[in-house]
């Protein structure tokens, strides 16, 4: 699901948005494109330091919507490619993926793992 | 409310996220930082071509949450600055601001105007 174009976007720096929602309120947090790793299972691994609102939402509704883009990648109508990913969220606090992420991002407290359900190139 | 650091972020290209929500569902769309204009009233003007989900949400709940960032701007803990803006949304389809935006972005159908209520530097 996570194709080469998406990986190309992630290889360009940018602010990636993470939207969660529950109880008729939405919360948005961010990470940098360069902080995202793709696991062998095809999930996105994202370092989480704060993300307390996201985690509280996920406890009620584990769906997330992510967006990311780069004007430096060729998109569908010229320069500028963007992606929308909807998926389910889990927070990891141990295991192999947690340890690998912790080594790369010592500041993290947990790892947000997103299993993609919908991946859409938006531009 | 829209300070110089925020303007500096907007002057660096990136994908800006726009989250709307209603009926226990959230929708996220994007624009490029370079597409945002700041009106004399201190509102954000954003070209809208599609944005049908956003507009449907706004008809029920006119709150929006925007995020934007650039790794090339000095932030609070090093390189990388990001902002969160919560505000109210209106869609313009005529008037001086609409005409100015239409001149700059001929592809737009409406202009999304966001009146900021909360502006927070997140990093």
Q: Could you characterize the architecture of this molecule?
A:
- With 123 residues, chain A is an alpha+beta fold.
- Helices cover 20% and strands 50% of the residues of chain A.
- In chain A, β5 and β6 form a beta hairpin.
- Chain A binds chain B through residues 13-15, 17, 19-22, 24-30, 32, 34, 65, 67-72, 80, 82, 84, 122-123, and chain B through 13-15, 17, 19-22, 24-30, 32, 34, 65, 67-72, 80, 82, 84, 122-123.
Short description:
Chain A is of the alpha+beta class and 123 residues long.
The number of E-state strands of chain A comes to 7
Report the sheet-strand fraction of chain A: over 45%
- How would you classify the quaternary structure? homodimer
What is the CA–CA distance across the termini of chain A? 17 Å
Name the helicity range of chain A.
Answer: 10-25%
- How big is the Rg of chain A? 14 Å
Largest sheet geometry of chain A:
7 strands, antiparallel
- The computed structural class of chain A is alpha+beta
Features:
123 residues, 7 strands, seven-stranded antiparallel beta sheet, alpha+beta, 3 helices, globular, homodimer, 20% helix
Structural topology:
The structure is a homodimer of 123-residue chains.
Chain A: H1 4-10, E1 15-22, E2 25-32, E3 37-38, E4 44-48, H2 52-60, E5 63-74, E6 79-92, H3 96-104, E7 110-121
Antiparallel strand pairs in A: 1-2, 1-5, 3-4, 4-7, 5-6, 6-7
């Amino acid at each position: 699901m996570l194709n080469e174009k998406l990986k190309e976007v992630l290889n360009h720096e940018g602010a990636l948005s993470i939207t969660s929602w529950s109880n008729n309120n939405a919360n948005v947090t961010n990470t940098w494109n360069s902080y995202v790793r793709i696991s062998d299972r095809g999930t996105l691994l994202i370092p989480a330091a704060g993300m307390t609102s996201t985690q509280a939402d996920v406890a009620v509704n584990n769906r997330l919507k992510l967006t990311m883009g780069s004007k430096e990648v060729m998109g569908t109508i010229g320069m500028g490619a963007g992606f929308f990913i909807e998926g389910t969220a889990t927070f990891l606090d141990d295991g192999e993926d947690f340890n690998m992420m912790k080594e790369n991002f010592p500041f993290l407290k947990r790892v947000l793992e997103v299993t993609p359900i919908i991946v859409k190139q938006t531009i």
